[in-house]
Amino acid sequence: MRAPICAAFLAMCAFAAFAPSGVGAQSGSDLAKDPALVARWTFDSARWPLGGGSGAASPSPAAATLPKNVPGVFGKAFDFSPADKSMLEVAPGILPKGIRQLTFSAWVAPRRNSGNLPILYKGDVGRHGDNRITFGIKGGKFISFGINCGGNYAELDAFAPPALFDGTPHHVVVSFDGKTMRAYFDGVEIGSFERQVPLSTVHDFAPLRISRDAVANSNYSSLEKAANHGAPFFIGFAPGRNNEFFDGILDDLRFYSRALTEAEIQALLAEAGDSTAGKAGPVPASLGIFSAPETLEALLGAADKVSPNDTNRRYEFHLALNKRFPADVNAYTMKWKKSPAELLFLDQASRRALAQNLVTPSKGGNPAPAFEYLPITDFQWAALSKTEHAKWRNAKALKEKLENPSAVISAADLYRLQDLVHDRPATRERVAAYVEPRTPETRDRTAEEARAVVEADWLFQANGKPTVGLALQEIAYTRA
Fold it and tell me: pTM for the full model?
C-alpha cells in the first residue's frame, strides 16, 4: 500500500525551530508544547495524518502493510511486524539545520529479545565517514543510540534491563547534550558516553553517497532527490543487506532538538499515570560481586563467570562498568565503535575468531597487530620500564595461551588483546609519484672537461666568490 503525500499536507506539518540548551524542567503537558519538539508521532490513527501528532509520515513502497492500531499507553499505538514488513518513512527535511543537541523518546514493548529492532534510523554516509542517526534495541541486549560527532560515528550501547522484554510498554529515552550521550529506561539513566565534540549531521557534511537500499525502500524518486536531504528517516525499519524491522509495539515517539533533563524525562514517564506501563522499572543494582575489581579488565573477568542466563547480574555489571570506569569505556568505544560489554556475549568460536584476527600478520608481511611490539631480544627486554615489562610479560603469556587450540579464551583476554593493538592513521595522504630506481649512466671525460666540472662545482660552493679564506676553510673541513 502506498499513499501519496500531497504538498498541502506537508506544508501543514511545520517543524518548530529548536530551543537553546538550559531550558528548565517542564511537566509532561508542557513538553508536548515545547518549541524544541521537532516531531511527535502518537500512533493514534492509521489514517491521515498518519499516526497522528505533528510528524508527517507515510508508508514506504516496500511496506506490505501499515502497522496495525492496537491499545497503547495513551489511546492507540502501532504494532510493527517484520512478517508484514510494516514501517513508516518520515517526510524529508525533518532534521533541523544547525542542530547540536537532540532527544528521542518512545514507549516500547518489543516482542523478542533477539536481533536488531530499529525504532528510528537515518543512514547518511558522508565525506567525513558514517553520519548515521540510530535509535533502537541492538542484539536483543542493548538500548542503542548512534550519532556522528566531529566526523566520528560511535554508538552508546546501554545494557537493557531484563524488564524491557516483559511484554509491557516501557519508556526508553536517548539524548545528546553536546557533550555526553545518555540512555534512560523508565526514568533512570542506565548508560552514558562522553563525546566532547559537536554533533555532525548531513547538513554539516554533505553525503557523497546514499545507500541504494535506503532509496529503494523509500518514496524518494532518485538518488539526486535523496541528496537534498540525505538518507530517509525511517520509523521501525533500517534498510541494508538484511533489512531490519521493529517487532513489537511503539507509542508516543518524540524527537526534540535539545537534550531533556532527567527531571523532564521522569515527567514524561509520569504521564502514564497508574497504567501498567513502566511499573517493572530497572532492576536495583547492588553491584555485589562487581564492586571489588580494580580495573575494567578484572571487571570483565568477574562478569564472565556469571551465567549468560542471569540477566539481572549482567545488568548489574553494565551499571558498574559505566559508573566505575567511564574513561576506559569511552576510550574503548571510540576505538572499537562498540561497548566492551559485547565481549561477554561472544561464544568460544567467535572469541577465537576475533583473537585470530587480532594476532594474524597482514598480507604485506607486517607483524601481528597485537604483538608487533612484543620484545624479542634480551636487550629489548632490559630496556623496558617495570610497568612495560609486566605488560609485555602478560602479553607473552597470552600469546602462548592463544597458540593452544584447546585453551578457553575469556572476555578479559580479548580486552587485553585489543588493548595491545595500536591505532593506525586512517586518512590517506598524497605522496610523491613513484620513480623506478636506476643507476645513472657514466662516461669518461677529457682533462679539460673534468677541470671545468670541478671549477663549476667549486664556484657553486663558494657562491661565485672563490676567495683564499674560503679555500682554506674547505681544506680544513676536508681534513676534519
Answer: 0.71
